[in-house]
Specification:
Blueprint (H helix, E strand, L loop, with lengths): L17 H7 L21 H12 L15 E2 L11 E2 L7 H16 L1
Amino acid sequence: MSEKAPATKKRRAVQFNLELIKRYDKAGPRYTSYPTAVQFTESFNSKAYAGYARQSNEEPIRRHLSLYFHIPFCSTLCFYCACNKFITKKKEHGAPYLDRLFREIEMQGRL
């Protein structure tokens, strides 16, 4: 009985984009932070925010917009979730939060 030689796969060399690696080689905030935690200072006001938003819209690498909304009013506790949460069966607790969220979406849309 003869054994077959294992099939060999051609390996492609991995190519790294050093410029891209340098651009993103820094710590970032948790994905749920908004605005990012490092921006919570007295000097980061609405004018600074608008400037930051305009600057990010002009970045050289264009990409699709991704949105994440965390609604912290849950009917049951999710043990895997590290976000702030308020456990309640009363859905009306979320109404003021949603009003503010809709207002912020409106303001952000203008930028």
